[in-house]
Design a protein that fits this description.
The structure holds 2 protein chains of 2 kinds.
Chain A (H helix, E strand, L loop, with lengths): L4 E12 L2 E12 L3 E5 L6 H8 L7 E6 L2 E2 L5 H7 L1 E3 L12 H4 L1 H5 L1 H6 L11 H11 L18 H14 L4 E5 L7 H16 L3 E5 L3 H7 L2 E6 L2 E6 L1 H6 L1 H6 L4 H9 L1
Parallel strand pairs in A: 3-8, 3-9, 6-7, 7-8
Antiparallel strand pairs in A: 1-2, 1-4, 4-5, 9-10
Chain B lengths: L5 E7 L1 H6 L8 H24 L2 H28 L6 H19 L3 H20 L7 H22 L17 H24 L1 H11 L1 H6 L4 H27 L10 H13 L5 H16 L6 H16 L4 H10 E7 L1
Antiparallel strand pairs in B: 1-2
Classes of the chains: A alpha/beta, B mainly alpha.
């Protein structure tokens, strides 16, 4: 892992009317790392992801990708540069089978430009590439699951489908918005190796999570947010030892649990 | 026995399951099962002008085809891209006026003028609709309804393009058989062309835009681009229909912006079955002749018409095509629960 920042968020501020959802939040994401963003409900974690990926416009502040400004670009341009995201509320194409869901990102300019055979271009057809990607992400190839309509898939598969959509774009950065929420312990356990594999493949991962224990197993650095501000940033042990973080999470059983665990 | 519960069971016919695969080409029966409905439709439409009595009804067939093109354009926009458009009259008017002007002032022959009008009209309609593309559902519908009203009043008030008199002396098709079969060929071309388009990867992306535009954005594709493309295709088809009607009636006027062109395709789609593309065409072949037959009733025509439409919406809201397809591919039986 290098120290070179791939994504820089500088003084990001977002006001919804009078409410400051983000207040001068700054942090760097280093190339190839797994960065965790945690914080209580309503602390502005998802807003950060929305601002970085262009789904909402920041009131002020800048986002740099590879040192180049991407602030205010439309979401599809940012995704086209390789900064991809998952949605907290899963957004598959419900009326299409799971593997057909991947034909859409594979049709995108980025996948065609960077994907080679995996882009489903000259050598591959997008349906088979879609099934390949689904297999990588944990859909059993020879079962009927990849062929089922997305509307009939359980949460665990839909979360994987979200990740698969990012993978199809040959991403440089994946911003995961609560991929573990709503999953059982065993489902999470089977997802963790995926995150580790992304990292080995050189993909930078930013994870927004409430499941701290699982997050700390993969994340190298943590950014803690509260009321739209960044409280602290550091290694999992450092942030959990911090007094302000304890205060923000006061009463949360999981923190107690994690503390003893750490 | 009154508390006995029954359930309707629907099962795919054996021949449907067998002929789903490639092996269908090994048996004439299964080949016929797959292709017969299509051939029946094509042959039916091609033979219709020869079967109907007299020139009046042949003209009705041409008008049906005009509406069928509009209905195809509506079905594509509404059920494959999620834009419910009431702009049928807008497309007809734009295409009609362009073709009429090309023909009368530049002397372009009708068959060429129609295609230029389709392309040019498609571009103009798309550019004019571009600001409305982020709108969805009923909002888009209302805005598209405004366009034809707006254009008609502008032409009337400024007295441009012939004003209320319209553009006279538009050249007709070389002869009536060319007229008849040109529109029929266009309907068949766009019917099967669009059916192919919606099943390609591009068509899949269009459906994805309808399903979930946020995810399309997150996949690195511009939603506006694909909506624009779909509107261009749909409005191009609509303009083509408009250009045809101008050369059929040899006149272009404000009545091209009449509400009929916006409403009837929707009614046809409801009756025929939305999202099937064939359905709306069949719907037009039912609705337009019925409305001609009802002419004798005078003012009551609209009443009869409405009752037919209401009956369909209430009792067969899935549409003829969806119903027919189910009956063709599946059999039903009651089973005790």
């Amino acid at each position: 892992m290098s120290e070179e920042p791939i994504l820089q968020v500088q003084e990001a501020t977002k006001a919804f009317g009078g409410v400051l959802a983000l207040n001068r939040v700054s942090f760097d994401v280093r190339k190839g790392e797994v960065l965790g963003i945690i914080g209580p409900n309503g602390s502005g974690k998802t807003t950060v992801v929305n601002c970085i990926t262009g789904f909402i416009k920041m009131t002020s502040g800048r986002v740099l990708f590879h040192g180049k400004e991407i602030t205010g670009k439309p979401p599809h341009k940012i995704a086209d540069m390789g900064v991809t995201r998952t949605f907290q509320v899963m957004r598959p194409y419900y009326s299409l089978p799971a593997y057909k869901n991947l034909v859409i990102p594979l049709f995108s300019p980025r996948a065609r430009r960077t994907g080679g055979w995996r882009g489903g271009g000259r050598l591959g057809d997008r349906n088979t590439v879609g099934i390949d990607i689904l297999e990588e992400i944990g859909f059993e190839r020879d079962s009927f699951v990849p062929y089922k309509l997305a509307s009939t898939l359980p949460t665990g598969y839909l979360k994987r489908l979200e990740l698969a959509r990012c993978l199809a774009l040959q991403p440089e950065v994946i911003l995961c918005d609560e991929v573990f929420s709503g999953l059982s312990m065993s489902e999470i356990a089977s997802m963790l190796p995926l995150i580790e594999r992304f990292q080995m493949e050189g993909i930078t991962v930013v994870m927004i999570e409430h499941r701290l224990r699982e997050l700390f197993r993969v994340a190298g650095r943590i950014v803690v947010m509260n009321f739209g501000e960044k409280l602290i940033e550091g290694s999992p042990e450092e942030v959990m030892a911090d007094e302000k973080v304890r205060e923000a999470y006061f009463g949360s059983e999981e923190v107690e649990e994690v503390m003893t665990y750490a | 026995m009154s508390d006995e519960q029954r359930r309707k069971e629907r099962l795919d016919r054996g021949i449907k399951i067998r002929s789903d695969s490639l092996y269908a080409i090994m048996s004439w029966r299964e080949l016929a099962y797959l292709t017969a409905p299509r051939f029946l439709l094509i042959a039916g439409i091609l033979l219709l002008p020869l079967l109907v009595p007299g020139m009046y009804w042949q003209r009705v067939v041409s008008v049906v085809c005009i509406y069928a093109l509009l209905a195809l354009s509506f079905d594509l926009m509404a059920h494959y891209v999620g834009l419910v458009s009431l702009g049928g009259a807008f497309f007809i008017g734009t295409g009609g006026y362009i073709s009429a002007m090309l023909n009368t002032s530049l002397g372009v022959p009708p068959l060429l003028a129609i295609f230029i009008a389709a392309l040019l009209g498609g571009v103009i309609c798309t550019v004019l609709l571009l600001p409305c593309l982020p709108l969805r559902g009923v909002y888009f519908a209302i805005v598209t309804l405004m366009y034809p009203l707006f254009l008609a009043r502008v032409i009337e008030a400024l007295d441009i393009f012939g004003g209320t008199d319209g553009i006279m002396g538009v050249e007709s098709f070389p002869n009536r058989w060319v007229e008849q079969y040109f529109v029929i060929a266009m309907v068949l071309l766009f019917l099967f062309g669009l059916r192919r388009l919606v099943n390609t990867d591009l068509g899949l992306v269009l459906r994805a835009v309808m399903d979930n535009d946020q995810a399309v954005k997150a996949s690195g594709m511009s939603v506006a681009l694909f909506k624009g493309l779909a509107v261009f295709i749909a409005s191009g088809i609509g303009c083509l229909a408009g250009a045809c009607i101008v050369h059929i009636y040899m006149w272009s006027g404000i009545s091209l912006f009449a509400l009929d062109f916006s409403i009837l395709p929707i009614a046809a789609t409801v009756i025929g079955g939305g999202g099937t593309l064939v359905g709306p065409v069949i719907g037009c072949f039912i609705l337009v002749p019925v409305s001609e037959l009802l002419r004798e009733f005078g003012t009551l025509r609209i009443v009869c018409y409405s009752i037919i439409l209401m009956a369909f919406v209430v009792f067969r809201s899935e549409g003829i095509m969806n119903y027919g397809r189910r009956k063709y591919h599946q059999f039903e039986r009651w089973v005790k629960v």
